[in-house]
């Protein structure tokens, strides 16, 4: 194979006519069908030549943006000693996603799913002075997470490629500065890889960290749900603040009503002939100290257990046995007549509801007109519900809309969580020892590749943005070896390659239909078709994959563009824009 | 940090004054001291910014050479399912170097030490026609081998970076063609990374394959011993053909001599007053079928157990109990009076020796004048000894010399070993199903980095070849912030950076001595020192790290070189050559 021009006759890119049965979403199906990836085992993939070309392009975009904000590239090992994970406490906390093994000398090691422990251990005896801070290090590396149900191809795999960066600071202000730089860099990475995305408020999860933001590529195949507003606000529904609009069912006084067979909010609303927004939903559990906690949210909302745990000091649902012991009834729990010592937390939105429709703590009965502060006490008002579309935007008050998204990257402010646990300090200006203030920042490289395909495909295949395409232009000679067609195709390929454009020539002895189908399936941004009939008029056909637009272009025009670009040192984006322009006329 | 110019004040490159106690060899010591790597666990390292810059340069050289011979880059996973290793038989054969774990669904997986199984499985249902062959795929990836005694830093680590390539063919001729291309590419890789090397005959080891060659970087720290000849011949002593020069101790007839207390060859030679070359050494063992095998080699040589196993059909030493059962005596074994059924193999070099000095199979006695064919029978003559310096070159007959080397890369002809075991076939031109003929080809990327340092260092530190240096030129302003010095240093840095040269500026507020020591330790190929005194005469000092030569150069000369290079579009090697030329005067 030439180093300059890819030849389809030599390229190893086996395409599939049939969609593999276990591939459910477009990116998984198309990356398999177009010969970009192959499955090696459940959740474990090999990148074939085309796939790895795309990965390298994404990596280079990420690398350029990291270097531009002064982050320095390193490479940490995959194998991580258990000792470091014991120091942070995560060896026990992490769960079965952490892949562990024992080496031949009986030392426990794990395969890195993330590198907080290593990055702290790496510098803790050497990055000693405040004068050396701030510092940001990053790596691009393979990561491991033993997903219980790997699926959706590269979106949820067990071995995947990530860029992870870590920063060390002397102050929150310095952390905020780097965090802001990273946010901007991540936006540019999404822009440059052609993603339609939203930065959204998120939850820290297992990494920890209170301030965090996810970059979501909007896609129906995404596993995350997010709410957003035209004002620019966006949040993961797992984390977003909920401001609901409950309605009031007004009755003169509290009354107990027989509701035989009514167990769900939907049944209750129907039975009373009121909207679900006028009802109140209850959920009971225990906090980490074993105390009974009863939560109330608007009937049309769900309790967000992450929020509940944060407010209540841990939260786990009661077992059926617990319920019975407390005399509580599923389907008719309420705030009146709770067991002694129960701690009642209600969603803030319910503060606007003076009279509640809620369970009576008696099977088959509900209360209407139950008044907080009169008929029962609320110990604490808090944000407890999972936000949903129609709720109020916390920034501007307009109703929120919802979408699904793929989390392609995330930034965290870790604070001193890891440096304190691992006793990693620097000497401050006043001579005291202080733990580093830290941030961490991840980009899913292989996941970004899948997200791009989710956003850039149609019924014919993939349509790569030029910035990450495995090559920019595919030249399709219709009759390989023809004495008119072949030399024109080859010269065009050479001319474009000399401008730095990445060119592939489909020199296979296949029917035109096969070549067109493969070119659309693989998704080269620009196709140039060279055929006998067009050449008779001095023309080739140029096609833009993303729009499907095609047009006859004279060879003279192409030659003029090439020689103009050579004289003027045009860069690749300019040449591609010229080719696109020819199609648009 | 600027994207163009590295600044020492921002670069994370912690240097150490003391040599770490567990680092025995130069590359390990210097890569730690100069801040290129840090140890994460036994045999497991992190590459710091400078170290990873060198790794990426080596990777890119390898990538260019692979692409140039038409090899296509892919990326296979680290995690490999046990099923595939059972197919090849290596799950049981590989030994404790293979790191294994069980995933959460109780499936056995291993961390790839090599990828023959995966590469065969990758294509076996898709690379179906002889028309698609030959094909060569490669990857650059982290590999795992659980060494029992990791040591020498990057030379023998448990997690390391390799390039591995695999080729598929329809014939031995086609394999030979790619094998030859790889040999040439590997030679160019060694040349371009600045290595003094020898391609040597080697043994296939655990990978298998009969035709194989190792590229050895010559270095005293190398774990391999090799013999070579001025005619160009070279071989690993584990694998090289042995042509020894035994001498004859002539006596009229066979005689049994009492040799009380004599157990070693040295003692026997001294006792008889003859050279060791006149004695014959014996070794007894069993082959894979349990048959007694007795081996004889010239007394000054050692039995090569790899050769013995190949000739005898497996070879394992007798236990003390076995020896006793057979009536054999360590220290006085010989060919006369061996147990019934013993199979006698003697080194070919002994064919030239009509009378042997050898054990008498009786404790405290030896034979002199024992004649093969008369007093005893040799069942088979073969190449059994480990070659050593002074033996005859198999190509030209001159005496061999010896050296130590670091194996940086190896090429193998695998034949159909893996494709046959894993039932991986293509359809041949005649319609029959045939197993692929295969080759595999590895380059140790991180090991190459260590080998370069072993060959390019002195008492002051590392001296990188420009092709793999973390940056080409270090500009050292002696007084940072000085109104004369600083602007000149910065302008020089910008001018060189605009030419594409990688520049680092030591803008730390440190004493000149510290800066000079660090520059020599880190090993930038060219240093440019900007000081007040020199500037007064319009000069800076340019130093070439590898030779230590230094010379005052006028700023005018430097400026002329820069503007000439800009006008003429000079490439980086030319600019560096110009700077070197200024030092050489």
TrEMBL record, chains A, B:
It is an enzyme of class 6 (ligase). GO terms for biological process: prolyl-tRNA aminoacylation. Keywords: Aminoacyl-tRNA synthetase, ATP-binding, Cytoplasm, Ligase, Nucleotide-binding, Protein biosynthesis. It catalyses: tRNA(Pro) + L-proline + ATP = L-prolyl-tRNA(Pro) + AMP + diphosphate. SUPFAM superfamilies: Class II aaRS ABD-related, Class II aaRS and biotin synthetases, YbaK/ProRS associated domain. GO terms for cellular component: cytosol. Residues 43-465 form the Aminoacyl-transfer RNA synthetases class-II family profile domain. Pfam families: HGTP_anticodon, tRNA-synt_2b, tRNA_edit. InterPro entries: aa-tRNA-synt_IIb, aa-tRNA-synth_II, aa-tRNA-synth_II/BPL/LPL, Anticodon-bd, Anticodon-bd_dom_sf, Pro-tRNA-ligase_IIa, Pro-tRNA-synth_IIa_bac-type, Pro-tRNA-Synthase_IIa_type1. Its EC number is 6.1.1.15. Its main location: cytoplasm. Belongs to the class-II aminoacyl-tRNA synthetase family. ProS type 1 subfamily. HAMAP family: Pro_tRNA_synth_type1. Consists of three domains: the N-terminal catalytic domain, the editing domain and the C-terminal anticodon-binding domain. Catalyzes the attachment of proline to tRNA(Pro) in a two-step reaction: proline is first activated by ATP to form Pro-AMP and then transferred to the acceptor end of tRNA(Pro). As ProRS can inadvertently accommodate and process non-cognate amino acids such as alanine and cysteine, to avoid such errors it has two additional distinct editing activities against alanine. One activity is designated as 'pretransfer' editing and involves the tRNA(Pro)-independent hydrolysis of activated Ala-AMP. This is Proline--tRNA ligase. The gene is proS.
